[in-house]
Amino acid sequence: MKVKADDRLEQAREEFIAQWGAMGTQWGINRTMAQIHALLMTAAEPMSTDEVMEALEISRGNAHANLKELVAWGLLRVVVKKGERREYFEAEKDVWRIFTVVARERKRREIDPALEVVRRCAEESRGIATPEGRAFHEQMRQLEEFVEFASRMADRVAMMKHGFAIQMAAKLLG
Amino acid sequence: MKVKADDRLEQAREEFIAQWGAMGTQWGINRTMAQIHALLMTAAEPMSTDEVMEALEISRGNAHANLKELVAWGLLRVVVKKGERREYFEAEKDVWRIFTVVARERKRREIDPALEVVRRCAEESRGIATPEGRAFHEQMRQLEEFVEFASRMADRVAMMKHGFAIQMAAKLLG
DNA sequence: CATCAGTTTCAATTATTTCCGAAAATTGAG
DNA sequence: CTCAATTTTCGGAAATAATTGAAACTGATG
User: Fold this and answer.
1) Tell me, what's the pLDDT at A45?
2) Residues of B in contact with A9 (CB under 8 A)
3) Which of A82, A152, B17, B44 could covalently link to B38 via disulfide, CB atoms 3.0 to 4.6 Å apart?
4) pLDDT tens string A61-86
5) Which of B121, B145, B164, B172 to mutate to test binding with chain A, by most A CBs within 10 Å of its CB?
6) Alpha helix locations (H) across A107-161?
7) Least CA distance to A27: which residue of chain B?
């Protein structure tokens, strides 16, 4: 009976890892990175680079690069076991924290650069007197205003505590 | 003086198109698609496939595929000029509408599939009696709850009118 | 200081995505 | 129906991104 339970778990877990990995693609996150995250999010104990390599059948270089990236994002912590030299990795498991971390990162990669572009274009087109020039400038201005708004919203959301978000949501969904 | 104004505009516009296109990459939208969108968003008049091809120096196949995709997203409208056989394309210029369209599409591509995955995994791991099984199931359940929440939020936001969103924002940013 | 476990880097390979260009299909006018 | 204009499809070329595998590096230990 124990064996059967383990099998079921192993199967469900593998499916989760595979699917979450495939989804990473859609999210602009590479497959390996998403898989490692899924693997560690559902691991009972921290895992070493070698364990990750074996579990996902990936090369050392790949495992290494993506583990580091996940640490940089703040989705993994490095854990050192006493008396052991090698590093172990442990995932953030709190769903809300995962969300805020990802939100921050995406804002940095998607919103901030957009804001710069749009600001520069609004600036460069200031005061062009033709009708087309005015229309272009106005379009850039509106875009700038919106992206700035999105930027601030993203900051706020990323800073929110779980409880507050739920409260917000209640209002919004009510 | 008119020439100079036109030059400045042309330059600013080209920069916008190039940069917005480059940014598309980060957004998981292909470069051509983002460029076409930028081009038409800043065009005084609707443009034909051939005009788009020429303006961006891209092939017919590429122009065609991406114009169609943008129409499918709802970011472009097809316009038929009377007495003309060929189709012209016109961009949605209202920033808030652009945002809600993109939000809807991203929800469809990013959130909905995630919800399915997580639901199935939560279901498949229901009732596994080992400690690991319980932990896994609980993790999936939390993920499911969160993704469902995100899904509903996205729906709400996508449906919001501009005014209401601003009002919300005031509360949130206040 | 030689060795060993482990980490990091990187050139080469492989996989994926995007794009072209030309051919095929469709459409509307005459 | 025929023809020319226009749209659509599609196989493969080109560009981009991910991954490997092996070598270089690091620093702790005897």
Assistant:
1) 96
2) 125, 128, 130, 132-133, 136
3) B17
4) 999 999 999 999 999 999 999 889 89
5) B121
6) 112-124, 131-159
7) B110
Query: Does the beta-carbon distance from A110 to B26 stay under 8 Å?
Result: yes
User: Could you read off the pLDDT of B41-76 as tens digits, one per residue?
Assistant: 999 999 999 999 999 999 999 999 999 999 999 999
d(CA B5, CA B9): 6
DSSP state of B108: I
Q: Which amino acid is at B20?
A: W
Average model confidence (pLDDT) for chain A? 93
Q: Which chain A residues are closer than 8 Å to B146 by Cβ?
A: 95-96, 99
* Beta-carbon pairs below 8 A across chains A and B: 139
CB of A66 nearer than 7 A to strand D: yes
pLDDT digits (tens, 9 = 90+) for B137-154: 999 999 999 999 999 999
B68 CB closer than 7 A to any strand D atom: yes
What are A95-121's pLDDT values in tens digits? Answer: 999 999 999 999 999 999 999 999 999
The SS3 of residue A127 is coil
> DSSP H helical segments within chain B, as ranges?
2-26, 31-41, 49-56, 60-73, 95-106, 112-124, 131-159, 162-173
- What DSSP string runs through A21-49? HHHHHHTTS-HHHHHHHHHHHT-SS-EEH
Select from A40, A38, A95 the least CA-distant residue to B149.
Answer: A95
The answer to whether the beta carbon of residue B110 comes closer than 7 angstroms to any atom of strand D is: no
What kind of fold does domain B2-91 have according to CATH? Arc Repressor Mutant, subunit A (1.10.10)
